[in-house]
Amino acid sequence: MGMESNFMFDVFPYIFGAMFILIFGMFLTAIVKGIQQWDKNNKSPVLTVDAKIVAKRVDQRRSSSSNDHMSDSIRTDYYVTFEFDSGDRSEFELQGNQYGLLIEGDRGKLTFQGTRYKDFKRV
Question: How far apart are CA 111 and CA 120, in angstroms?
Fold first, then answer.
């Protein structure tokens, strides 16, 4: 029994190190992907096309900084899906004030740059 418990103490630093490297790698990958998407959007042309709003959705996530529920915060992300005359669809993340002005079924001119929503004007 003494040998088994020493084995666990000997292996634990390697397991902890591997988990740290894995989590750090995932964090670094997310940062790199975000920078690449930002750069790709900046290099994309600003397009204005005919589009129809076909769906709206809200994604809410709760996060807490401690066990005290009084410090919980809720993050709300707003998404709108547009359908183009070709039948293709794209979903964009919007600010809450922009999201509230749009109604499913509206038709108009959508302006976007890559995956970045710019504007929608009803016709």
Answer: 6
